[in-house]
Amino acid sequence: MTAFQLTRRLRPAELATVDVVLAVAVGGLLGPYAALESPLRGGVHEPLWLSVLVGMALGLPLGVRRRWPITVAVVISCVAAVALVSGVVPNYAAAAPGLAVGLSVYTVAVSTGTHRSVLCVAGCLALVSVALMFTESDLWSRTGAVGYAAVMIVPAGMIGWLVRERRALAVRQGEHLVRQAAAEERLRVARELHDVVAHTLSLIVVKAAVANHVAEADPREAGAALRVIEETGRNALTDVRRVLGVLREDTPYAPQPGLDELPALARQAAIGGVEVRLDVRREEPAEAVPESVGLAVYRIVQEAVTNVVKHAAPATCRATVIVTPGEVRVEVIDDGRRSVATVGEGHGIVGMRERVAMHGGEFHAGPRSGGGFVVTAGLPYRVSA
Questions:
Q1: Among the listed residues 182, 123, 177, the one whose alpha carbon sits nearest the alpha carbon of residue 154
Q2: How far apart are CA 157 and CA 111, in angstroms?
Q3: CA nearest 79: which of 102, 104, 54?
Q4: Among 331, 322, 319, which Cα is nearest to 364's?
Q5: How large is the angle between the packed helices 69-86 and 114-133, nearest 10 degrees?
Q6: pTM attached to this predicted model
Q7: For 274, phi and psi rounded to 5 degrees?
Q8: Which of 290, 306, 303, 188 is nearest to 243 (CA)?
Q9: Contact 13, 36 (CB under 8 A)
Q10: Tens-digit pLDDT profile for residues 188-228
Q11: Beta pairing class for 315-324 and 274-282
């Protein structure tokens, strides 16, 4: 069970039910509370039904506090002020209507903007403060009445504002994560397409050059080259569909390539005039390599071999893949000659470096002292139970 399932937000109907129950509970508590005591110096001894009516007038509007938050706050504040001034609610029991006012103010602060909520809280505070000032009391002065009202109302507004800001922050973080995931997915698809297209087109260009060179002198050789081009193109289309297919659910295409497809990759490189000597070793007790790591290893070898085909063919290339418990080590070395312009770090090397960095590994690519080029990578992995 995920954390999202454990913290599921209530549906609108469930929220409405909670509000109705809260309204009835607050109204039911405030009515009898208003009738329990009389003012310290005598005063109005209202009938029980009036106390219950005042309690309902304070509590029942909370049932629609989410729909009309400001209206509910104003209505409850007015009822509380009238109840305090008339003596239906004794001034020393002002905390009872203060509960209803605080709940309404909290809702305003949670559901409306800062400017409107501040104005509403200030208005409710002024209304209740004036009502307390006009009640005869030995408990506080006029300044104390304002302080008492502030203690009942201001904390509720501050808590509501903090909750609203926290929710807004959570929404912004969620949107940021969505944008980040989309950007990472676009980068992944672009990287996959680059590897597939660059490798395939390099082979097609080489065989097309061969076919063009021998077209008149040896039609059979030209036909064989065209058949290789056709087969390579079909394989490329399948790879592109596979890459784009993972963006949709229930894709019918084959899974992503991995370590088992490296021999076919080595045979395909021979088309471009590069002899690839592949050596894949598994040291015991090596675990099953995760699919993402296997795909990264395949793409690294593919890109390294493609660079040899593009910039150094004809050449000999040795690709070594060693699977150890917890890490896959890759080394691709060739003996071809490259021009100075092609030795720099292009998009292919950047893509390989990013693949290794995604798995927290180490990567190096550069010319060898004795000629040729070397690509090394170490990709750590952890097998899930």
A1: 123
A2: 11
A3: 54
A4: 331
A5: 10
A6: 0.49
A7: -120, 120
A8: 188
A9: no
A10: 777 777 777 766 777 777 777 777 777 777 777 777 777 77
A11: parallel
The pLDDT-based confidence of 331 (bands split at 50, 70, 90) is very high
**Encoded amino acid at 131, one letter:** A
89: left (phi over 0), alpha (psi -120 to 50) or beta: beta
Backbone φ/ψ region at 140: left (φ over 0), alpha (ψ -120 to 50), beta: beta
Residue 117 carries which side chain, given as an amino acid letter? S
The contacts of residue 157 (CB under 8 Å, 6+ apart) are: 105, 106, 108, 109, 117, 118, 121
Separation between Cα atoms, residue 89 and residue 87, nearest integer Å: 5
CA distance 74 to 97: 13
Main-chain dihedrals φ then ψ at residue 115, nearest 5 degrees? -60, -50
Write the burial class of residue 29 (CB in 10 Å: 0-12 exposed, 13-18 middle, 19+ buried). Answer: middle
